[in-house]
Design goal:
By secondary structure, the protein is α+β, with helices and mostly antiparallel strands. It has one domain. The protein has two helices and three strands. It has a three-stranded antiparallel beta sheet with strand order 1-3-2. The radius of gyration is 11 Å and the shape is globular.
Length: about 60
């Protein structure tokens, strides 16, 4: 489910993460710790992480 405060007129940088549930949970928790709770800066849906800021996307990609 997409959070209600997501900007629909913005092109998010998207990265799909493959892995088991634990790996996805680790990546999700890392995003919460690093970027704050899901919302307009980033969100997760269907094994994909969406980032509003390209720098956040690159940081995530380097980490995971």
């Amino acid at each position: 489910m997409i959070p209600l405060n997501v900007k629909t007129d913005h092109d998010y940088s998207v990265i799909e993460v493959e892995g088991d549930k634990q790996g996805l949970a680790n990546a999700f928790n890392w995003c919460c710790t690093t970027f704050g709770p899901p919302g307009t800066r980033w969100f997760f849906q269907n094994n994909k992480f969406y980032f509003m800021n390209e720098r956040d996307y690159i940081f995530f990609e380097l980490r995971w």
